Amino acid sequence: MKRSTTVYLYELAWILPSIAIPAGMLAALAVTMFGAGIHLPSSEGRVDPTRVAQTAPFDAPGIRRTAPGRYEVAMTSQIWSFAPNEVRVPAGSSVTFVATSKDVVHGLLIPKANVNVMLLPGQIARVTARFDRPGEYPFFCHEYCGVAHHTMWGKVIVEANP
Amino acid sequence: MRTVDRQTAAYLGVALVALFGGVVTGVAQALEHAGINVYPALAPVVRSYYHGLSLHGVLNVLVWTTFFICGFLPFVTARALGTPPASPGLGWLAFWLMTGGLLLAAIPLVGNAATVMFTFYPPLKAHWAFYVGLTLVVVGTWLVTLILARTCSAWRRAHPGARTPLPAFMALATMTMWTIASLGLAAEMLVMLIPWSLGWVAGTDALLARVLFWFTGHPIVYFWLLPAYLSWYTLVPRRAGGRLFSDPMARAAFLLFLVLSTPLGFHHQYADPGIHQGWKLVHGFLTFAVFFPSLLTFFNVVASLEIGARARGGTGWVAWFGRLPWGDPVLAAQVLAMILFAFGGIGGLINASLSMNLVVHNTAWIPGHLHLTVGTAATLTYMGITYWLVPVLCGRALWSRRLALGQVWLWFGGMVIFSNALHRLGLMGMPRRTMIGASAYVQPEWTAALPLVGLGGSILFLSSLLYFLNLVLTLTLSRAPALERVEFAEAVSPAEAAPALFERWRPWIVLAGVLIALAYGPVLVRLAVTTPFDAPGFRVW
To answer: What is the rounded CA–CA span in Å between residue B455 and residue B269?
Structure first.
């Protein structure tokens, strides 16, 4: 009898922290995420994947200034390239990428700017990143998209302010 | 028992052939990352890096695991209950359905007509035989569930009031969880991919396919892990010279896996557009909830090992660990698998953390993680199991224990190097599933870690060759009779201490269904109603 009581206490002594540990991690995650204003890709609407080239803003891929220090890049992905595959912005810019795929699933990964989003045919993806330091920020397709997947990349060139 | 042994041997045969194909294609990828391109030499069989990668993924994570599990679980159920499984005929039907399906899927896969990875995201469009074949494999696993359910239910009718022995309970919980979870994949295949690949419908949809795939795609990792847990809970403590610490806590963990494994697949889709952020948050919370039964397992298994080690003279807070019977390759394999799985679990929590996921999603970090979980926690445990299971099945002793021990440590060491390098490359932004050596964008900071991928992968390959060598020599040259017996651990805290509710299945299955309906229902209904299925297919390899 005594033995089983001991076992029961050991079990309890582990079960309670086992609930507290994930709960604590979740709380920390929620606080840091909302505190830092981190947003995940969310619902931004659909686009007919067979008519991307005829649909705004993807009919004119490229960069446009929406406000001082703010830019929007309309981007299409297709085997095996991004359009545009080179984007130039001044340091300190906030850039919103509005992107989709014309064919299979692609991805947009800009490691140095924490941009990580899937580009699905039929879905519009929208992510915003800040580019503070001058330099080159390479971006890669990070989903297998066919036999030349590894040739699909581009870069954001952040120019020093004069 | 003869029939179930023959069926287990048949499943194991297919599983091992698949594992062999998987490691041969795998080492080519690792070498490619290190700058050694062997694909021109493989060209007659493996047409491209991505053809090899599809073979590697399908053979290792889908075939090796599934066939091993469907052989192993009925075997332990029969031994634990002391009665052969119900309906041997159905058992053979399941095996041939799965093997037939596998062969059907293998034709386009080997022929480079299904170079779509093991995730086969449309609009990449494989040959229809690939989808139909894999679907038949899944249907075969459902028959295995049915057999285990009928076996356990017959045993309980014959033993009223008794608790189902723990190994049989765990086997049935695993297959029940898998059967619920596999409904997403079955729906993706039957409603979307098969009619589309046959040309009956013109278009498909990338997002809905991914939602259905990951409905199954996360719980499938528990399908791989739970049979390893079964071994850690019910077989390893005995080999360590001790007892299982707590039977009721083990049952609680498996029931929680049954309930919680499925409604959390969106944590693979944090980076997907088209799913509202709020739903991703819900699935993130549920992913942390399933960490709870993993922590219960961690405690229970380590406590059981400690009982064994202390019985062998171990002392101290940590020093007892050295007193485990490390000379036994069966035990060494599984304890080393547990050690690396601890890091896999921590990495998994990072993946599940919505903000940190944006750093690692689809980078080399992910295969680094996957090789700790399915590539070690599951695979190294399965290897350890075969070191006793093959001798039991063929009646001959393992050809060499020392070779087996060396193999196990090589896997551990190789994986530490390989997985660590991939994790670091992922943090430095290297994409996964990419022929890095042929890309034009290798970053200077990657170059130090890339050779380690090749080194670790080569050590793993060597380890797997020693593994196959030992098994082949056991089957051909070994003359000593097998001394292995299948013995399950007794529990310090026995099954009778568990609530009676743990013996009932329906409430838990209903609870799982309710959680799935809450977590997936609204999104699935919206997608089913609004998706136009307007994406044409592509064959771009």
So the answer is: 32
A12 confidence band (pLDDT: 50, 70, 90): confident
Residue B199 DSSP label: T
Give the tokens for residue B22.
């998987």
Sequence-distant (6+) residues with CB within 8 A of A127 are A41, A96, A97, A108, A115, A117
pLDDT band of B284, cuts 50, 70, 90: very high
Alpha helices in chain A (DSSP H): 2-36
Strands A81-83 and A70-78: antiparallel
Distance, in Å, from the CA atom of B61 to the CA atom of B66, rounded to the nearest integer, reads: 8
Q: Cα–Cα distance between A123 and A119 in angstroms, integer?
A: 7
**Which backbone phi and psi does A89 adopt, to 5 degrees?**
-140, 155
What residues contact residue B221 under an 8 Å CB cut-off, 6+ apart? B373, B374
Continuous segment of H or E residues that includes residue B488: none
Specify the DSSP element, H or E, that contains A99. strand A93-101
Instruction: Decide if A105 contacts A119 (C-beta within 8 A).
Output: yes
Share of chain B above pLDDT 70, in %: 100
**Which residues in chain A are closer than 8 Å to B270, comparing Cβ atoms?**
40-41
Report the phi/psi class of residue B486: left, alpha or beta, with left for phi > 0 and alpha for psi in -120 to 50: beta
Cis bond upstream, residue B214 (ω within 30): no
Phi, then psi, of A81 in degrees rounded to 5: -155, 160
User: Per residue in B463-507, pLDDT tens?
Assistant: 999 999 999 999 999 988 888 888 999 999 888 888 889 999 999
Please name the residues in contact with B2: beta carbons below 8 A apart, sequence gap of 6 or more: none
Instruction: Enumerate residues 6+ apart whose C-beta is below 8 A from B156.
Output: B162, B164
Chain B interface includes A55 (CB < 8 A): no
Cβ–Cβ below 8 Å for B303 and A10: yes
Inter-residue contact B165 to B488 (CB < 8 Å): yes
Q: Dig out the tokens for B390 from the structure.
A: 């093959």
A2 has a pLDDT exceeding 60: no
- Closest Cα in chain A, distance from residue B404 (Å): 35
Residue B333 contacts residue B380 (beta carbons within 8 Å): yes
* Domains contained in chain B, CATH given: 2-432+441-530 (1.20.210.10)
Residue A34 has pLDDT above 80, yes or no: yes
Cβ atoms of B356 and B270 closer than 8 Å: no
**CB contact burial A118-136 (16+ within 10 A = b; e otherwise):** bbbbbbbbbbebebeeeee
Say yes or no for a CB contact (<8 Å) between B535 and A114: no
Q: Give burial (CB, 10 Å; 0-12/13-18/19+) of B146.
A: middle
Do B354 and A38 make contact, defined as CB atoms within 8 angstroms? Answer: yes
DSSP class of residue A49 equals: T
Chain A positions in Cβ-Cβ contact with residue B205 (cut-off 8 Å): 122
Short-list B345, B351, B333, CA closest to B373: B345
According to DSSP, residue B500 is labeled G
Work out whether strand A70-78 and strand A62-67 pair parallel, antiparallel, or are unpaired: antiparallel
> What span, in angstroms and rounded, lies between the C-alpha atoms of B164 and B495?
9
Q: What is the pTM of this model?
A: 0.96
How many Cα atoms within 13 Å fall on the side-chain side of residue A134?
Answer: 5
pLDDT band at A3 (very low <50, low <70, confident <90, very high): low
Is B153 near chain A, with CB under 8 Å?
A: no
Structure tokens at B132: 């139909």
